[in-house]
Amino acid sequence: MLDIDFSTKKALIIESYKVFRDLIKNSTMKLGIGQVDCVRNSFDALSNCKDHDYDIIYLGYDLGEGKKNGQQTLEELRVNGLIKRTCTVIMITAESSQEMVLCAMEHKPDTYLTKPFTTKELLRRLIQTMDKKAALSEIYLALDNANSELVLTLCDAHLMQDTNYRQDCLKIKSQQLFKLGEFAATEEICERYTNDANCLWAAIGLGKVYMEYRLFDKATHVFKKLLLENPLYIPGYEWLAKNYKMQGDFELSKSTLEKAIETSPRSVSLIQEYASVCEQNTNYDNAITAYKKTLDLSKNSIHHTPKNGLNFARAMSDYSDLTDELDINKLTQQVFRELTNINRDFKNSENKILTTLASACLFFTNKDKHNATKALQESANLCDLLEGDLPRYIALELAKAYMHFQIDEKAEPILLDLVEKHKNDDVFMLKVDQFLQAPLSQQGKAETLTVIKIAVKHYNQKNYQDAVTELSLILSRYPNHVSIKLNLIEALLKSVQHDDFQNHLTRANQLMVQLNKLPRKNEHFQRMLDLRKKLSAISVAKDSVSKDSVS
Hints:
Layout: E1 10-14, H1 18-29, E2 35-39, H2 42-51, E3 56-60, H3 70-79, E4 88-93, H4 98-105, E5 111-114, H5 119-135, H6 137-144, H7 148-160, H8 166-179, H9 183-193, H10 200-212, H11 216-229, H12 234-246, H13 250-263, H14 268-280, H15 284-297, H16 306-319, H17 328-345, H18 349-365, H19 369-386, H20 392-404, H21 408-422, H22 426-435, H23 442-460, H24 464-477, H25 482-499, H26 502-514, H27 525-550
Parallel strand pairs: 1-2, 1-3, 3-4, 4-5
Helix pairs in contact: 2-3, 6-7, 7-8, 8-9, 8-10, 9-10, 10-11, 10-12, 11-12, 12-13, 13-14, 14-15, 15-16, 16-17, 16-18, 17-18, 18-19, 18-20, 19-20, 20-21, 21-22, 23-24, 24-25, 25-26, 25-27, 26-27
Pfam families: Response_reg (PF00072), TPR_8 (PF13181)
Protein name: CheY chemotaxis protein or a CheY-like REC (Receiver) domain
Domain Response regulatory: 10-130
């Protein structure tokens, strides 16, 4: 154990029950801690952390009914940079259910105590964690300062010594190497330790490297093996789902995330990603259910933003035009209530425009032409009031709404103006291109054309799986690109005929559903019809073979 000068340390106790506040305070004071502050709720905790750099935080999970809980408080503290990596965080709770513990651990408290606990156990956990924090303090400080080169230098220095925290140093080193794009060095470390006990980070790192190398089958094997041995390890599910998503296999990504949510049903980030994957896979009923759940779970948390309600509204606008399996009227009223809540909780002119646009699109989808037109005009008028101060993301949403209304002649000038003004902003241009059926930016055009040429070359050489991989990757970047979807469908069908990959037939059908709304005037419309006939014929033939084999 290192010598720690407790008199220089500051501690914060965040606990709603006085008896536990007093117990923790008395125990901590025995160590000679220089400053011990106590608060009962998240609001006061956040306020204190803005004014003080605490070395120790005791964080109760239950901070009062209807208020932020400990997990939400910790997440906000970390996201807003109010606590450093050198701060020791001890989560304390009376509940020990799997779903609660997994959710609480998502934001990485250093240790976890279940009530009731003894003073001896509390101090043991505190000293044990502070010892590690003190030993690795320079590394944590370099991480806080985003100095990757210094982090690597310090890790190497510790690894040359007889440190008790060798695995911690290796984990941090491998993560920094990956961040710097040093994949071979990352692979060397992770491959060496991936089978060692308590080295789950090594398996994740190795799988991520394989994904960078586009060795998706290898990545899948690593993540599946990790989950087989550690079925409660949520990052394993998250990265396996990302691995499938990168290949364009949204169905497998969706089912993987479902298993993760079943394991940790309170994770907002998991459910948000699940909703997004469902939406991209045109599983709008699942997406709507998930977006509704994020609205409930995000209350009192940092995730309580206008985006949740707007995502819910967008999914409904896409969904209700396709099927009547759900009670559309009931859901529509729920959406309108959420849009009203956004204007109540986040009052500003920009959110007013966004909610009005969302209302317009939903009215239009539900064939309420009068209210749709009225809301769209109101949105346009609100945009005009901002004149030259109209944020570009609002202009993009206005263009999306016009295209939803099939008023392309009003959408196109807005989009062309955005491209002209922001053509050198690759991040924003990608957002514009991702929404369109073909990119407008020069980078988007060049990138998609290059990949299509590579995929066509694979296709002509009868390397159909390679063609599928290339097109799937670029489609994950440009999810509405019509030509890529059609080329991918063709490659998938060839792989079904040539290699008998049955899951490719399912993916081809899913992609074709996404093209159902392709307008007749689109240059690819006839090709889409031809491929639809081909897809139908292959599906019928496969069904016939399947029935014959059963009989």
